[in-house]
Amino acid sequence: MKIPKIRLIATDLDGTLLRDDKTIDEKTKERLIQAQKQGIIIVIATGRHKSGIDFVTKPLQLEQHGNNYVAGINGEIIYSYKNKEYFVDQVLCDKDAQIIRRTVKRFGCEAIYFCGYDMYDQISWWLKIKKLLYSLLFRKPADYGLKGAKHNFIELHKEHTFTQDINKVVFTQTKRFFDKHLEEMRKELRGYDLLKVGPGWIELMPKGVNKASAILKIAEANGISKEEILCFGDAENDLSMMQQIPHSIAMGNAMNIVKEAAFDICDSNMEAGIAKALDKYIFQKTS
Fold it and tell me: pTM for the complete prediction?
């Protein structure tokens, strides 16, 4: 299957570039560094903020080789390693937060509002007790591992008014809860995009702000056509890439809706899927 010469590679992180233990396999790391040395731009397209992915950018040497980018917060924030510049797309504000807070209270899930280095946690008292018991029983962090050296995880109080920009909102509850309520929540919050990232993890974004829009902006700024882009993903926040970028590849472990929209399907994140796809489409190697 022949495709045009690839000039930009975009990849999601969790479930795609990263293995289940949050590391990158050596074969994939080698191929992505090799691609950079050939002048190919690498874009990390992730729901995470740029400040939280040093464990990825450093081993991939993204600051050392050429003109690489992060499309963070599901494409809301673009960062250029070459120019050391940020571009921020549409964000959420307090008016949005009040709409979302009412919906969260009515349905009974937990919501986390991402505001730069501050994350505000909206949670009912009974769900908080349930979460703490789960954390103690299974030794899982109550902040989901979100709180780092520079980040604050703050309980949201009833009287709080958001004066900071809100980058995104995460809803978390059980798989059973979202199987039952997600479509109804999407109807109630139809002015926003609700993206299923995991069985119990839903990300809310401003309408139309997504990974594909960010990647296409990066491509346009560098004189690259969408046919010269190869992208990888596994979840609903990667679906825009599968739908808008012709040469999009779903991981073997991807959600079915992502696989159905993709140009091709590679092996899973645990089987060096990206490296094998790069061998197939860029380096013309056979395993």
Answer: 0.90
